[in-house]
Amino acid sequence: MGRSRGGLTSKLHLRVNEHGLPLQIELSPGQMHDAPMAELLLQDLPKGTSLLADRGYDADWIRELIEEQDCTPVIPPKS
Fold it and tell me: The whole model's pTM is what?
C-alpha cells in the first residue's frame, strides 16, 4: 500500500497472453511509477513476441530489454 491524495492505494501490474489470460501479477504502492515493475514483468519473454504496454512503460531501457529478447515493443510514447 502506498499513500496518495486519495489515501492508501495500490496498483496491479499484469502480464497477460494473447487471449488476455494472466501469466504474472505484481502489486506495487499506488504512487510508484510503472517503469520499475517492468523488469519483473519482462523476464523470459517468448521469442518473436510483440509486447503491448501502456505509456507508463515508455522508456528506452524498457524497449531495449524487450528487444534484447528478440521481441517487438508496442508502447505509445508519452505526450
Answer: 0.78
The arithmetic mean of pLDDT across residues 67-78, rounded, is: 95
Domain residue limits, the chain: 2-74
Spacing of C-alpha 53 from chain mean position: 6
Rounded CA-CA distance 57/48 in Å is 19
DSSP-based three-state secondary structure for 55: helix
Q: Tell me which residue has cell 510514447.
A: 77
Grouping H, G, I as helix, E, B as strand and the rest as coil, residue 59 is coil
Query: N- to C-terminal Cα distance for the chain?
Result: 28
